[in-house]
C-alpha cells in the first residue's frame, strides 16, 4: 500500500461561532498528502491554511472552531484508515505527536517556559514510546544532534528563554520528530527567523524528510520558501482551494489570477539591479497610481558618531557585573533628510539596540547623536521628552505596541494629547485624516486592536507614529511579521508618506529583498559593528565583506530550479558578543572601495 496517501482531506468545512453568527474559516477544501512528499499550502493570513492543519490535528475545537463537514482520512502505522473528524479526543491524544507531529509558528509559545528543554523533549517519548528516563534522554540528545544544535548536552539542561529564536525553533522541530511521525505539519516554521537560520532549517527539514520518509504538510505565505521546499503546492484564498499543482507548474505556469498576483508581489533579490532609487512594490490585485522614485536630499538629519551600547551581565553572590554584552560597538553613520537608511543583519547583531539607543530608550555608554542640530546625548529628561516629538518608532510587533483596552482612534490621538499639540475637534479631524492616510476606514477608529489583522494593526502603528509630524521614523522590523501582499502595501504606504512629507526612515530589517526595495543607503551589521556601508546599489551589486556575501547567498529565491543544497549553506556560527570587564574593543576602521561605499578593515570576527 505504498502508493496510498497518508492523509486525505475531503470537502473540509470549518465554522467558528461568533456574536454575529457563524463565520466560515474553511469553506470546501480537498487535497492529499502522499508518503515522502512535501505539500506546501500557500495563502495570505485569513485564507484558512492554519485552520486546515489544526483541523487535521483536531486542535481547532480548542480554538472555538468546529468541523462542520467533510472527512479527514488518515492512514495509520498499522495500515488501518481512520476518519479523524469523527475520532474521540482520547484516541487523538495517541495519534498527536506519535503519528502526526506539528511544528508551530511561534517557538516561544510552543515551549513550556517552566520546564527544561530536556524534560520537554523526553515527555513525548516516555508517554508514546514507553521508554525509560535514560533511553529517552539518549534519544533526546540524538535528536538535538540531528537538528544541529551546538553543545547539545548543555542545551538539555537549559530553559527555553536561554536559547535564541532559531535554537528554540530547532528544539520544536526535534520535539515534533521525536516519535518519528508519519506526517509532519509545519505551520510557518521559519516566518520569524533570520535568513541564514531559515536557510539552515529548511535544508534540515528537507534532509530529515529524505532520511525518515516522513510526509510533510508545510504551511507558509513565503513563495521563496515554497520554491525551496515543495513537491506539490496548494494555493488557498478565503477558505477555498483555488489552484493545485506541482511546484514547477505553479511557478512557471500559474493558472488562477490570485496565484499570479501572489507571485508578482514577492520582492526578489536582484530585481533592482541597475536602478539607483527606491521603487514601489507590486501590489496584489489592484492597479497602483504612479509613485515616482524618491531622490531625498543631501542635507544631513541624523548624525551618529562612535556609538557604543553595552549591557551588564551580572552574576555571583552579590550580583556584581562580571562581563558586558557588546551590543553596539563603535557605530557611525549619517542619514539625510527625506532618505531611507537600512540596517540589516541577523538577530543578535545589535541593529534594534542601535535604533533604540538613538531614541535613548536604551542608554548608550558613549558616542554622539545629532538630530537636526540637537545633541540628543546632552539632553536631560524633560528636554529628551520634547525632542522625541521629532523622532518616533514603529515596533516589530504591532499587537504588543498597542494598548488592548484602548480604541484605535484614542491610541492614535494619544501622542497629540500627551504633547498638547492639537485639542478638541481639531484633534479628531487629524486622527480621521491619519486613518485616511494609512488607508483604513474611519469606522476602525472605534475598534480595538484584537479586531484587526496584523497588517491593519501595523497601519495603526504607522498612523500613531505620524501623529506628531516627526522628522525621523525608526522602523524596527516593521513588516517582518506581515504577508507578502500586506507587506507590499505597508511599504508602499511608507514610501508615499516619505515622498509627501519628506520623512526620513531608519529601517531595521533582516529581509534583504525588502531592504533592496526601499533603501537609499544600506549598512550591514554583524556583532555590533557596521561591516559594510554605502549606497544601496553599491552594497547589493558589489558586496565586499565576506559576511555581506554570506547574507546574500542565504536569501531563498522564488524559483524551484535554483534550490540550494545543504552543502552551500554552512554559515559560521555567530561568536558570543559577551566579553569580560576591561576588554578593549578595537576601533572600527574603514576602507573606501568606491565613492561612499565603505568596508570594515578591523577584524569583525567573521
From TrEMBL:
User: Which family, according to the similarity comment?
Assistant: Belongs to the ABC transporter superfamily. Glutathione importer (TC 3.A.1.5.11) family.
What is the protein's quaternary organization?
Answer: The complex is composed of two ATP-binding proteins (GsiA), two transmembrane proteins (GsiC and GsiD) and a solute-binding protein (GsiB).
Instruction: State the protein's purpose.
Output: Part of the ABC transporter complex GsiABCD involved in glutathione import. Responsible for energy coupling to the transport system.
Q: What keywords does the record list, in alphabetical order?
A: ATP-binding, Cell inner membrane, Cell membrane, Hydrolase, Membrane, Nucleotide-binding, Repeat, Translocase, Transport
A GO cellular component annotation in the UniProt record: plasma membrane
One Pfam family name is oligo_HPY
Q: What is this protein called?
A: Glutathione import ATP-binding protein GsiA
EC number(s) from the headed UniProt entry: 7.4.2.10
According to its UniProt record, which reaction does this protein catalyse?
A: glutathione(out) + ATP + H2O = glutathione(in) + ADP + phosphate + H(+)
Compartment(s) of residence: Cell inner membrane
Species in which this protein is naturally found: Thalassovita mangrovi
Does the keyword Amino-acid biosynthesis feature in the UniProt annotation?
A: no
GO molecular function annotations of the record: ATP binding; ATP hydrolysis activity
Bilayer disposition of the protein: Peripheral membrane protein
Domain ABC transporter positions: 7-263, 302-552
GO BP, one annotated term = peptide transport
InterPro entries for the chain: AAA+_ATPase, ABC_transp_ATP-bind, ABC_transporter-like_ATP-bd, ABC_transporter-like_CS, Oligopep_ABC_C, P-loop_NTPase
Amino acid at each position: 500500500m505504498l502508493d496510498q496517501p497518508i492523509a486525505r482531506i475531503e470537502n473540509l468545512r470549518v465554522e467558528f461561532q461568533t456574536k454575529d453568527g457563524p463565520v466560515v474559516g474553511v469553506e470546501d477544501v480537498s487535497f492529499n498528502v502522499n508518503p515522502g512528499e512535501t505539500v506546501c499550502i500557500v495563502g495570505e493570513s485569513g485564507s484558512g491554511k492554519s485552520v486546515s492543519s489544526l483541523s487535521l490535528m483536531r486542535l481547532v475545537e480548542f480554538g472555538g472552531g468546529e468541523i462542520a463537514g467533510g472527512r479527514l482520512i488518515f492512514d495509520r502505522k498499522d495500515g488501518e484508515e481512520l476518519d479523524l473528524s469523527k475520532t474521540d479526543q482520547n484516541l487523538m491524544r495517541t495519534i498527536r505527536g506519535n503519528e502526526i507531529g506539528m511544528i508551530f509558528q511561534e517557538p516561544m509559545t510552543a515551549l513550556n517556559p517552566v520546564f527544561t528543554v530536556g524534560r520537554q523533549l523526553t515527555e513525548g517519548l516516555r508517554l508514546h514510546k514507553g521508554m525509560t528516563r535514560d533511553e529517552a534522554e539518549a534519544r533526546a540528545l540524538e535528536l538535538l544532534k540531528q537538528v544541529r544544535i551546538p553543545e547539545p548536552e548543555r542545551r538539555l539542561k537549559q530553559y527555553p528563554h536561554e536559547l535564541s529564536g532559531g535554537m528554540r525553533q530547532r528544539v520544536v522541530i526535534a520535539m515534533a520528530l521525536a516519535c518519528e511521525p508519519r506526517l509532519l505539519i509545519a505551520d510557518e516554521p521559519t516566518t520569524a527567523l533570520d535568513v541564514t537560520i531559515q536557510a539552515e532549517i529548511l535544508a534540515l527539514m528537507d534532509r530529515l524528510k529524505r532520511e525518515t520518509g516522513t510526509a510533510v504538510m508545510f504551511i507558509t505565505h513565503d513563495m521563496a520558501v515554497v520554491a525551496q521546499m515543495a513537491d506539490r503546492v496548494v494555493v488557498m484564498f478565503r477558505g477555498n482551494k483555488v489552484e493545485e499543482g506541482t511546484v514547477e507548474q505553479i511557478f512557471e505556469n500559474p493558472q488562477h489570477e490570485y496565484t499570479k498576483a501572489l507571485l508578482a508581489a514577492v520582492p526578489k533579490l536582484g530585481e533592482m539591479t541597475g536602478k539607483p532609487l527606491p521603487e514601489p512594490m507590486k501590489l496584489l490585485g489592484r492597479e497602483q497610481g504612479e509613485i515616482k522614485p524618491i531622490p531625498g536630499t543631501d542635507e544631513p538629519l541624523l548624525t551618529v558618531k562612535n556609538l557604543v551600547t553595552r549591557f551588564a551581565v551580572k552574576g555571583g553572590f552579590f550580583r556584581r557585573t562580571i562581563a558586558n554584552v557588546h551590543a553596539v560597538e563603535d557605530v557611525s553613520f549619517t542619514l539625510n533628510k527625506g532618505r531611507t537608511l537600512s540596517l540589516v543583519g541577523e538577530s543578535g547583531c545589535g541593529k534594534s539596540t542601535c535604533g533604540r539607543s538613538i531614541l535613548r530608550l536604551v542608554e548608550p555608554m558613549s558616542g554622539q547623536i545629532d538630530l537636526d542640530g540637537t545633541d540628543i546625548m546632552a539632553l536631560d529628561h524633560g528636554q529628551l521628552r520634547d525632542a522625541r516629538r521629532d523622532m518616533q518608532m514603529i515596533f516589530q510587533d504591532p499587537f504588543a505596541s498597542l494598548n488592548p483596552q484602548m480604541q484605535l482612534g484614542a491610541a492614535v490621538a494619544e501622542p497629540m494629547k500627551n504633547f498638547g499639540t492639537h485639542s478638541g475637534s481639531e484633534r479628531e479631524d487629524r486622527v480621521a485624516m491619519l486613518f485616511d492616510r494609512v488607508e483604513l476606514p474611519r469606522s476602525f477608529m472605534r475598534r480595538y486592536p484584537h479586531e484587526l489583522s496584523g497588517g491593519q494593526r501595523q497601519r495603526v502603528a504607522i498612523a500613531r507614529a505620524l501623529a506628531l509630524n516627526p522628522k525621523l521614523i525608526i522602523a524596527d522590523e516593521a513588516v517582518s511579521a506581515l504577508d507578502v501582499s500586506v507587506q507590499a502595501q505597508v511599504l508602499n504606504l511608507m514610501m508615499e508618506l516619505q515622498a509627501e512629507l519628506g520623512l526620513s526612515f531608519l529601517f531595521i530589517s533582516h529581509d534583504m529583498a525588502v531592504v533592496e526595495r526601499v533603501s537609499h543607503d544600506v549598512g550591514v551589521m554583524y556583532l555590533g559593528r557596521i561591516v559594510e556601508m554605502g549606497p544601496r546599489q553599491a552594497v547589493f551589486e558589489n558586496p565586499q565583506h565576506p559576511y555581506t556575501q554570506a547574507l546574500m547567498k542565504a536569501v531563498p529565491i522564488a524559483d524551484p530550479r535554483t534550490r540550494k543544497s545543504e552543502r552551500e549553506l554552512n554559515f559560521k556560527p555567530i561568536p558570543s558578543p559577551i566579553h569580560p570587564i576591561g576588554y578593549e574593543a578595537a576601533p572600527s576602521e574603514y576602507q573606501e572601495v568606491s565613492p561612499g561605499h565603505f568596508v570594515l578593515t578591523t577584524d569583525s570576527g567573521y
